[in-house]
Design goal:
three-stranded parallel beta sheet, 88 residues, alpha/beta, single chain
Length: 88
Amino acid sequence: MLYALILAGGKGTRLYPLSREDNPKQFLRLINNKSFLRNTVDRIKPLVSRENIYVVTNEMYLDKIYGELPEINKDNIFVEPANKETPL
């Protein structure tokens, strides 16, 4: 059984100016008419059942995640307690 954990809590500083805190890179639609987050979920769905897909985000983006991924159980979406940002 496979599980997927998608990290989607970044504030979008690396793709500035396209990506901003209110619309970070995981929600951008640059490749097709789907966000990076949506494309990621679509790519893994043939391999991982939706019940085993988990997303980590921060509280600021929780509603956007729910809207972007309505098929993912809300219990599978975690809010990180503090934003740590990935070091460069």
